[in-house]
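Colleagues,

Please find the record for the two-part complex below.
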Amino acid sequence: MGRSLYSITVFYAIDPTIEYATGQSIDLTSFENIKGNITYLFLWMLFVWGVVIFVEEIVFRGWLYHAMTSVFSSFTYKRWIFAIITSLLFGLAHSYQGTSGMISTSLMSLFLVGCFEWERKTIWFPIIIHGIIDTVGLLFIYFDWMPL
Amino acid sequence: MSTSTYPQLWRYSIAWILSGALCLVSGYGILILFMLVLLAALTRKITWRQLGFTTPESWPHLFFKSVWVGVSIQLLFFML
């Protein structure tokens, strides 16, 4: 419970802080075609739940984080080191969202790594959370509730 | 770290550099990386368990917890 509250608090304030610090808003214009278009929303939902969440979670949380921490099990601070490197790469992979988006997705990755550790290292937990986060985001864009 | 792990370190360093380079090219790079990881898992170079595919204690509990955490994060994120 404490950990969830901490995570929620961080994300409540972190994005506006990032945008203020970088002077750039998160660039989500790539998703503009979803706005008010049910077909694009449906296609994006299929893509997110069928491809994105599995590909990203297996690569970043499964391979780059978990497999690496188990291979280098003798390293001190291995969890922190691999969590940070994995999250930086996750942010880099979202470079289309601009500088603020890269910082924000890196922090989201740290949160997903935390979720992975929280639920006794089962990848299904970050997979479902990732899907839910993307679904809510897509719905906000569809209803034009999120500035792009 | 024992000396026997040094070849592994060398091998995995290359894997990390490759991963970083592929992440730089965004979506397609990650897809290539995913294919490589999938190939490694299918040829048993890496186990599914190492990738985190373990059975949770309770599927309904995991699902509801995921929904609760995911929706809370995204809603509070948006509300500001």
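The radius of gyration of chain B is 18 Å.

Comments are welcome before we finalize the supplementary table.
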